[in-house]
Specification:
Blueprint lengths: L7 E3 L2 E3 L3 E4 L6 H11 L3 E5 L22 E5 L6 H13 L5 E4 L12 H13 L3 E6 L3 H10 L5 E2 L13 H10 L5 E3 L5 H9 L4 E4 L1 H4 L4 H21 L22
Parallel strand pairs: 3-4, 3-10, 4-5, 6-7, 7-8, 9-10
Antiparallel strand pairs: 1-2
Helix pairs in contact: 1-8, 2-3, 3-4, 4-5, 6-8
Length: 261
Amino acid sequence: MADATDLLVIAGRSFRSRLLVGTGKFPSLECMAKAVEASGSEIVTVSLRRAEKGAASGNILDYLDPSRVLILPNTSGARDAEEAIRLARLSRAGGLSDWIKLEVTPHPMHLLPDPVETLKAAEVLVKEGFVVLPYIHADPVLARRLAEAGTATVMPLGSPIGSNRGLRTGDAIRLIVEEATVPVVVDAGLGAPSHAAAALEMGADAVLVNTAIATAEDPVAMAEAFRLGVEAGRRAFRAGVPSEKDRAEASSPLTGFLGRP
């Protein structure tokens, strides 16, 4: 169980869980709701396109309890800053939230974030009073520029969206963590609870997971597994993960053993 005193704080709001969950790709909204419950997540990101009243696939907001989870709209589908800003403003006008997960992904083939347009949109939205959580490349320079612009977090990708390839950007994420002045939430590409645990072990403040949970054979069981992975990684980080060494080192003294000096 997560340590109740070890809280994730974003923009002055505290959360006990360090696992953020996306809501796409689930086989049903009922399954999604059960997985969110099993994950223990208190921040759930939702595509604005799926939060429309009367949507053919149902309104996802009817399956989430806003008294228990923070609904975090995202600008998924935005190809440039202008589209992302428009989506954020629509979210606010629709009464969803002033919090926004900023995603600007111009190319549908790789869905990698556009750093220039992301920074441009973040600067506008912060000035308009939004709490901005930007999805970015694992770029320490961009992360610093966004934090200086006033974003509430930075969200570097572990690997491409939906790839389940884990922390391919681990070395760069370590640099972001070392220099961070806002919470670092590793987003995209985490395919197994061990990936989430590794991110927390290296000092990331939280992770966001969607595909790996939603497309598992048992999404609810996988959500619980990710919860446990995040908790284990965070506990290991706080305990102090020992550094790697180039040579073997016995865990027990060898002197005085079998006549050795």
